[in-house]
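Reopening this ticket.

The earlier resolution said the output was attached, but the attachment link was broken on my side. Pasting everything inline this time so it's all in one place.
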Amino acid sequence: MDILILRFDAPLMSFGGVMVDQHGPIDRFPGLAMLTGLPANALGYRHDDFDRLQALQARIRYAARWDVEPKHIIDYHTVDLGQPKMKGYAEGKKPWGWTTRGSPDGRGDGGATKETHIRYRHYWANGVMTLAVTLEEEGAPTLDELEAALRHPARPLFLGRKTCLPAAPVLLARVQATHVLDALCTHPVHPRTKENPGETLAACWPADIPGGVHARIVSRYDQREWRNQIHAGRREHHEGRIGRPAS
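Inline output:
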């Protein structure tokens, strides 16, 4: 099986979890929707390419490991919705903005539209992650097309939020392996892995592939219904630890 090896190396990464009020939490590992959006962005897909995005999401299969454990940080910031630029350019005119649905939308007139809002955004800082990604079944794009797009992306890539820019090219190599966990367990680690104590690394991989140590099945709600722009659907994967490959 042909498999692409990716590396997420960035000052900040954000694997979005379930939003709770003003808190934007993160998950331990990237979700399926994120690993659909990243290659789709590289391929030049648009938000309204619903069918292509849904088909791509259904074919992605991956495993991931932390070569360098990150630090969890929380970014505290405020949004002043009462600024003139947030109110519109003319008196009595609502501030309209373009949405991913391709139509303009505006805010209402209540107090919540004029006040200062507090937000907390969570990030993984200073970590390095390696991933093994492949596509199941035939269809578009092919793995060749995906590899080419990741080498020369149609648009800048980001790791979760748009502020999370990679510090190095995302695509590392193309390898052959029995499955994605096998590829992950044999691909060399990042040189900074020596910062991690112990002989194993934190990882996730598909639920139907046995392996690892201290592994457990975890339910994820990380699939996206792209036409309606909502997260929907549950899937399961393993989370545990795998042996440290040579550097």
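Reporter confirms the inline version is readable. The mean pLDDT is 87. The helical segments are 34-43, 50-59, 84-87, 143-151, 180-186.
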